[in-house]
Structure formats: C-alpha cells, structure tokens
Amino acid sequence: QGCPQIIPVNEILVPVGVVQPITLQAKNLPQPQSGQKNYECIFNIQGRTQRVPAVRFNSTSVQCTNTSYWYDGDESGDLPVDFSVVWDGDFIIDKPTSMKALLYKCSAQRKSCGLCLKAEARFECGWCLSEKKCLLRQHCASPDLNWMHLSRRNIYCSNPRIAKIQPLTGPKEGGTRITIVGENLGLHFRDIANGVRVTGVRCTPISSEYISAEKIVCEMERSLLSNPIPGPVELCVGDCSEDYRTQSEHVYTFVSPSFNRVHPEKGPASGGTRITISGKHLDAGSSVAVTVGKGQCHFVRRTVREIVCVTSVSTGGPGIAAIVVNVDRANVANPTVMYLYSEDPKIDKIEPAWSVFNGSTAVTVTGSQLLTIQEPKVRAKYDGIETTNTCQVVNDTAMLCWAPRIYYSKRNPPIEGERADEFGFILDNVQDLLVLNHTVFRYYPNPIFEPFGPLGVMELKPGSPIILKGRNLIPAAPGNAKLNYTVLIGEKPCLLTVSETQLLCDSPNLTGKQRVTILVGGLDYSPGMLHIYSDSALTLPAIICICVGGVVLLIAIITVLIAYKRKTRDADRTLKRLQMQMDNLESRVALECKEAFAELQTDIHELTNNMDGVKIPFLEYKTYAMRVLFPGIEDHPVLKELDAPANVEKALRLFGQLLNNKVFLLTFIHTLEAQRSFSMRDRGNVASLAMVALQGRMEYATVVLKQLLSDLIEKNLENKNHPKLLLRRTESVAEKMLTNWFTFLLYRFLKECAGEPLFMLFCAIKQQMEKGPIDAITGEARYSLSEDKLIRQQIDYKMLTLNCVCPESENGTEIPVKVLNCDTVTQVKDKLLDVVYKGIPYSQRPKAEDMDLEWHQGRIARIILQDEDVTTKIEYDWKRLNSLAHYQVTDGSVVALVPKQISAYNIANSFTFTRSLSRYESLLRTSSSPDSLRSRAPMITPDQETGTKLWHLVKNHDHTDHKEGDRGSKMVSEIYLTRLLATKGTLQKFVDDLFETVFSTAHRGSALPLAIKYMFDFLDEQADRRQIQDPDVRHTWKSNCLPLRFWVNVIKNPQFVFDIHKNSITDACLSVVAQTFMDSCSTSEHRLGKDSPSNKLLYAKDIPNFKTWVERYYRDISKMAAISDQDMDAYLVEQSRLHANEFNTLSALSELYFYINKYREEILLALDRDAYCRRHKLRQKLEQVINLMLSSS
User: Which residues form a coiled coil (predicted)?
Assistant: First the structure.
C-alpha cells in the first residue's frame, strides 16, 4: 500500500500533432532529493522511445509536460501506446500493465465525410469542408462555418457515391435483397429510409443491415411493368437536393429464370443424389430454394446456367416428383421436367467375403438398383475405428469394391481371422445398408515376408528361381478365392507360384542389382535387393587348371585336417571341461541375480508397506539450508545471536544498507574475485553468507545473481573459453550463489514431490546393501553399484532372525529383526536400532556406541556381546572383529539393547577396541569422500602397541602377507562384477522413479517450480542476446545450472535433506547414481569400451533413454508461458517472508565484514574508480563502517 504507483482514472486520449500536457493521478510519489533526477514520462511508440520531462505537483499527481506525439502510417485510426513514469533516471513508478495512452489521427481510415462523422464521439473528430478532410476543430480554418460535427442537428454529408451493387439481376416478382456499397450513404437510417429506387421501382431499406455511411441493404418491390427495362440504382440522402442525390454506374436488370433439364433423372428414394438443374438466369436474385416433390433439395452452388443441390428423403417413397425453383418471390416450375425416386439399392452377395487386415483386396458385390448411386463406398468398423474404401459400379446389378482396412493392434492375431464389428456400404443417403447384419465378412492376418538376410541382398544366377519366404501367404479362408500377388523385379513382373510359406518367382532375364517389390492388397513390401550375376564362359584349359588346382588344394586340406584333429583332441577335452565349469559358473551367477531380484522386490514391497504410515524425516528448512550452504559446519555463527557492542551493531546495519545497493555489492564481489589470495573456499563462503544476509530480500538477491551470471557469461566469451564450460565448476561467487538460490527456492518442491523418490532410493540402497555381508573395516559389500566397494570373493553367511526386546517397552515386547551371522556386533546393533526405532529421525534415537547388545540364554543368563573382547581371534598379526557366528548365536535367539554399563569389565574389554574403532571409524568417514573411491580398499595401519591389524570379512588385498592359498573358495575376482548388474537391476525402479520425477514438468499434480522456468528463460535470453544459436550450448548451460549444481549435490548427500545416517557403501552407490544423472544431462556421446569405468558400463543402455527425458524436459519448459518479473518478484517476496527469521542477519554481516577488513584498500580503491560510487559517496559510507568497527575494537 505504501509503494509509489500510478492510479488509472480516465482514458488517456492523445491526438496526434497536438501540443498538450498529460496529467496522471498517483499516490505515494516520492519527492526527488538533491542530486537525484526529476520525473520523466517514457512513451514507446512503434518501437521508438520518446522521453518527456514530467512535473510532480504533489504525492498524488504528476504531469507530463506540453509535447506533441506522432505515429507513422494511416493504417489505423488509433494506436494504444505503452508508457511509464520514472524518477531519478531508472526507478519506474508502478502502474497497471493494461493502462496505456491512446494516440489517434482523425484523418486515418476516415477519407470521407460519412466515415469521419461516424467516428467515436470521444475523439471529437469533424469534417472540414474547406479542406475536405477529417480534422480536429482547432485544425480547421473558420470552424464555425467549415467544420461539421454530429453535435449539430440535421446535418448530411454531400456527394454520396455508389461503388457497387449486388446482385445485378433479379425476378420482377420482387423480394430480391440488393446490397449497395459506397460512401456518404447517410449518417442515420432515417436519412435513406425512403430514398432508394431501382429502375424506378421502390426498394425498401432494411434497418438491421444498414451500416452508417457505408452500406444499405434493401428489398425490391414487385415491378408492375410487363417488360421493365434495365436501370440504375438511385439514392437520395435527406432532402434529395442536387448535392445529396446519386445513382449507380451499374444497371439492374429484371429477368425471368427458367429451367429445362435435370441430370441425373433418377436416384434412390433415400436421397443423397447430387442433381444439376440446367436453364437460364438461374443466378438471379439474392436467394434460391429448390424442392423435389415435397422435400427440399439442399443447395450446393449455382451459376447463370445451372443449380446444383442434393436430394433429401422422398416422403412419398418411390415415384415421380415435380421440381420447383424458388428465386426470391418467383416460383419457377416446368411440368415437362420431372425427377424419378427409384427403389433403394439392395445388396445380395459379397464375394469373396474376406480380406486381410490391410484391406484393398478386390471384392465383387452383387445386388440391384446399383446404377442409381453416384459415389458408392464400402465401410468397416473395428475396435471403435471406422475405415472406408472406394467402389466402382459395373452395371445395375454388380459393382467392384476394394475392401477397407482394419487396425488390429493386438499381438499374435488369430489364424482363423477376425470379424469386423460393423461392415456395410455408404450408398449416397441409403441408411439400411450402412451395416449388413447378414454378412460374415472376416479379416485375416497380413502376409509377412522375411528380408534377404541381415544385409538385405540376395545373390542369384540368371534363370534361377527366386524364393520369397514368409507366413500367412494363403489365408485360412473358405472358398477358392486367393490373394492376388504381384512381384516386381526392378520394373518387370515375374511369374508366380504361391504356397502357404513361400512365393516361387521365375526370374526375368535381367542382370545387375534389382530391387524386389511385393504387391498384395494395399501392401507394398521390399525384402531387399537381388544381385543377378551374368554367366561367363570358361575355356577348356582354364577348366582343366581349375580342376587340377582344386584336387591339389583338397589333398592339402585333408592333410591339415588330419594333423589338426590329432592336435586338438586333447584341447577338446580341456575345452569341454572348461565349458562345464563356465556353465556351472554362469548358472551360479544367474541364480544369484534371480534370487537377489526376487528378494529385493519382496523386501522393497515390505519396506513400502511399512513406510505407509511413516513420515519421511525431512530436515527443517534452517538445518537443510545450513548443510548445503556450509557443509560440515554444524554450529555456524549465523545460527546464533550476535553478542557485540552497540557500535558494532550500528556498523553492521550500515554495512547491510550498503549491501542493499546493487552497485556496491557487485563492486565488492568483483573486487574480491580479482584478488589472488581469494581462494575457492572463500568464494563459496562469501556466496553463502551473502545469500543468508539477503534471505529477507530474495527479489533483490535474484537481480544481483542475474547480473553476476550475465557478467560471468560475458567474461567467459571475452576469454574465448568454450561456452559449454560455463557454470561447470564453482570458480566464482555467482556459481555458488546460483546453487544457494536453488537451495532456498526448491525446498518446498523437495518436500512435496522429489523428496519421496529420493528417500525411497536411499532406503532401497540401504536395505539391499544390508541384505548381504558388509565389511565393517573396508566398507566393501556383497551388493554394490560401485566396483570400488564390491567384495570380490565368496563369503559364506546365513540369515538369522533375532527377537529383540524393545528397550522402552514395559511388558518386554519382542520384535523380530533379520541379521546376518557374519555381522559384527556394531552392525547388529545398527540393524536392531533401525527396526526398533523405525520412523524416528536418526538424531532423536540412541546411537549404537551408547548401547550394549545383551544375548539372553535362558531366563537368567545374560552375555554382553562386543566387537572385541578376550575371545577375539588373532592369527599372526591380524585380529578379526567378533561376529554373531563367532559367538555361535543361533536363529530365533533373544537379544536386548541396554544402555552401556560403565564397569571394570567393559572398560578393560573396550579400551583396546576404542582405539581401533576410532581408527577405522575415521577411515570410513574419510572413505565417503570422492577421492577415497579411487582405491578399492584402504590401508589398515597396525596398532602401535600390539602390532595387530583389524579385519572383518576380507584382509587388505595388497598386503604382503596375503598368499595365493588364502583365496580359498574365491573365483576370478572380475566374475563378481556381475553382482553390480544384479544390484543395478533390483534398484532400477527407484532410480527410474527419481529421474522421472526430476525430469518432468508435471510432478504428481504439482506445478513446475517457478525458479526453474525463470532461470532457464534467463539463460535462453542471455544466449539470444549474444547470438548463441547452438542448441548443445543452451542444453549444457541448463544442465550445469540446475542438475549439476543442485540435483547431483542432493542425490549424493541425502543427509542434506533428511535426518538420516549415510554409511560409506551407501555413499559409494549414490555416487554412481549421481554420475549417471550427470551423464544423462550431457550432450556429448560416451564411447564405451572394455576399459571404460564400470559405473558408465553399468548404465550404458539406460543413459540414452534418460537423455531423451532430459531433452523433453527442457523442451517442455521452453514451451511454457514466460513468467513475468512482477509474478516472480511476488513469489520471491513471499519466500522471503516465510523464512525471514531463520538466520541471524547481523552474524552473517559480521562474517562478511571479515573480507572487507582483509581487502580494505582494494575495495576502497575500486569504489573510488566507479563513477556511480563516487556520485553516491559509497566510499565514505564504507569508511564510516570501518571506523565504527575500529573504534569498538
């Protein structure tokens, strides 16, 4: 309500060429201060900008000063013109978008007096007699005498003129409506109501069709003369004096229409026959109607010599009917010309009563009265789709039709054929034959032919027969009718022999390459090219040489075969043995994949059912934003109240005001980026702090972000970098700000739409990984998407079901939990906690290290299980973590989670393990980083005191103590890569769901977030401005902008969105999914080979499909209606309001001030160099902030 704005009151009419002010009503208009520019009105006229000084009278009124306006051309009498009011150079005062000024010219499109005086009264246009033009009063000399306006009474425009009359002929009986077009044809209907005569006969004007000054429609009276002569149209306007009377140049003629012939002379009683009535003057008058018998003949067209119409149903059945032509009020008949309604045609027989699905086979139809039909057609309807085909009448009892096709979409069509839902004939308007109930017309599968091999080429000698193989070549139809095949070799047909599975074609006398074409019904199929070799005659010596050479070669081949047979006999035995081993291995792999897929579907189905009532543990907005903006920093200063002296608070508020100045903020950021010591980490920190500080003004932050991105694009092009590199790496503040901008604006989209499939993918990965063994030390797993985290050997394990006593239940409720006997105690505790505290956020439930696992043996005996205790096995210098198998825990055992007891026993047993645990826990935390994925297993450093190294399922593969004999039941390690495929197959649905949700503009009923459409349009606009037309560049910009900067980060780090715990194996799998996501957004083709990374090979077949989703997603977004800046600003203001108090702005400003202090001299110098900063004294304002901060310190 307090914003300055223009208020629409009255319409703003601006006559062209008149010097006048324009006064506008407004409210809250600010008073320009010293140094600020005054108000201006800016008009955009036909792409040309006209700036006019304006005067502010008070806060509610502003006036554009005296100026004249002009627009080119006389094509339009008025032109709406958009305008705006600005102050201080570039601050636009709000006004409704529909509020425009209307420029108008009286003379445009008003060349005559009548057109001028019928102009809208608001324009105040009048006819200037002296200049014979439409002008404003002030532009006409002696207006009291020369200026005509509708405000005067009883005025008429002189010199009426008739330009055209239509029609030029009509019957003397009258009733013809004559249309008169011209100029100055009266201003009111009363002016011409009695003033029209045609060849001396009165013509009565019709008021409803009168157009002032331009058109008169009148109806002719009857001519009383027996032979009236042609004459002009005469018109009087008003008093009918010399200056107000005119007549047409064209003459009107009275005629007597007649007809003497009709063709055809008969047709079916059901009608629908197009007849032509021939005669004289049949185009006369303004209207025509034809009746045949008692029914109307529907008019089609007419000329001077004929009328064409379509007969309707005969009400009296078959018989002779009279023809009457009504031309206006004249009734024209001829008793010698009659039309015969004949019996409707009948269909007696259809032969053959079958066709193929594609139709177009010949069908002979026998019946009666067929010659009366003009355009016969045959129709069929199947599965809701109607098709037709043409017929040709042979005689009155026979016609030849081509069967219509039907669309059969099911697989494996029945050999016995399919009956159409409806089958009949379209015979003009005959309804009884549209559907024939007695027909048994059937459709059989189309003939299908095999191509000439994979290359589509058949080699043949001249004269050899051509065999074309196929199926369905002879439909299983009754009778002797067969399909009529034509086979063309090049352009020449060949003689055919047809069987059920092949066509035998006698080859014509041709050589070279010839295309083979098979024609049957409506099918046109080519199985390939025929290569016919010409015969070449050989001489007798050549034949003898060839025979001798063949014998010698045959003897040599037999000798080699005998030697080869002996040599390869043993090799065959070895090969068979290896083949059996490979078959067994393949069976094991296939069985493993099948079982894994079936198990996961069952588990995921149970997981989905279990999650129906569980709320997805979304993080609150503040925590989510902090984890993305400041990863790894849990307790950031912006979350706390700033404890600082009053001077510091005052300085920071002044600093905040400076940041709200766009030029200052841009200068500040560009200056920092120009410093060599300003690191990548500093850039990300400044971008995050700036976005936090501007959280309350997101619309301003968006303007700054767009300018920074525009500058970055310009810099990229100036440095002649490839445009596709833009936004790929976080090398600027703008790129990190863009990530943060999407982070703020897509939170709601994550909660309402994309969060669910992401959470389901995380749960599916976690559950699939935990189904098999996971090494607690290396993080490797039996089920994995990452080759680096795959256990490459056979681990024997067994599934156990433990009954866990719920720690918080009073009655000792037992919950069944599935674990593996190879799990360590800590892994078991984690699985128990996942089930017991299902649906509770990770941060709100106990941690495994704070609980002990207690094994109940009987009613009294209790054993505390630990990863390391006195029973831990040590072999050489390797110490193996305890598992359930180590303790011999059996299926169905009862366990309990109890708070960790501080006792001497626990301290003694856990002291050594605590050091080891801290070592490999830090190792696992490190392994979640991308760099650690490059090595398959981390090095295990020995304990400094005992010299032992911990291991769980697999020892470090690179260790020197590893012996070949230790491989035990291992296969070749690469064989286990098939587990990647098994895991990928089981998780495919969840990956597809996530990608489909992200790359779709219709999100389960939710609209596309405005931020995505707005930023993509901005990038397209930047590309247009710099004339970048390459679609790959635009695609890459959008991919680097949203998927790379936001979605990849979220997919790799779901803990940024949910209150969950992500272990190292889950992190490795999510990294593979994220890499696939990135590859799907790329425009470059990935050439894969045997040495390509496994994660790229894993999704090689899926990525092309994902790419089509991305392209469709970008294309759909570009087709959406653009979002206006006003709508986007309103949305951003609402987002600012929702999250205004999430962060402490003063703390963010305090953190930002660190960079002011560090680069003080450089920033002050940059402010000095900028003209805008000097004019607004921004250096002095920053120095004031610095002095206040220094005084407090």
Answer: 568-610
> What residue segments make up the domains of the chain, in order of their start?
5-104, 156-255, 258-342, 346-408+417-441, 448-532, 583-614+749-794+972-1139, 796-900+940-952
Counted residue by residue, the chain has a size of: 1193
Fold equal for 258-342 and 448-532: yes
Gyration radius from the chain CA atoms: 46
Burial of 903 (0-12, 13-18, 19+ CB in 10 A): exposed
Write the CA distances from 322 to 267, 282, 287, 325, integer angstroms.
14, 18, 20, 10
Q: Residue 82, class by beta-carbon neighbours within 10 Å (0-12 exposed, 13-18 middle, 19+ buried)?
A: middle
Model confidence over 535-544: pLDDT tens digits? 555 567 778 8
Beta bridge partners of residue 310, listed in sequence order: 274, 298
Statement: 796-900+940-952 belongs to CATH 3.10.20.90: yes
Q: For residue 198, give the nearest of 241, 158, 167, 238 by alpha carbon.
A: 167
Give tens-digit pLDDT for 625-660.
998 988 888 788 888 888 888 888 888 889 889 899
Determine the Cα–Cα distance for residues 1047 and 1067; give it in Å rounded to an integer.
15
127 neighbors 148 (Cβ within 8 angstroms): yes
Six-digit token string for 646: 């009053």
- For the domain bounded by 156-255, which CATH number is listed? 2.60.40.10
pLDDT at res. 2: 79
* Neighbouring C-beta atoms of residue 243, cutoff 10 Å: 13
Place of tokens 């025929």: 530
Which parts of the chain sit beneath pLDDT 50?
Answer: 903-941, 958-972
Q: How far apart are the first and last CA of the chain?
A: 42
Angle at 10 (CA atoms; ends 7, 11), nearest 5 degrees: 110
Highest CATH level, class, for 583-614+749-794+972-1139: mainly alpha
CA distance 1121 to 1127: 12
Q: What is the SS3 assignment for 347-370? A: EEEEECCEEECCCCCEEEEEEECH
Q: Does domain 346-408+417-441 have CATH number 2.60.40?
A: yes
Between CA 346 and CA 268 the distance in angstroms is 11
Residue reference for tokens 């020369």: 146
Residue 299: CB atoms within 10 A of its CB come to 14
CATH topology of domain 448-532: Immunoglobulin-like (2.60.40)
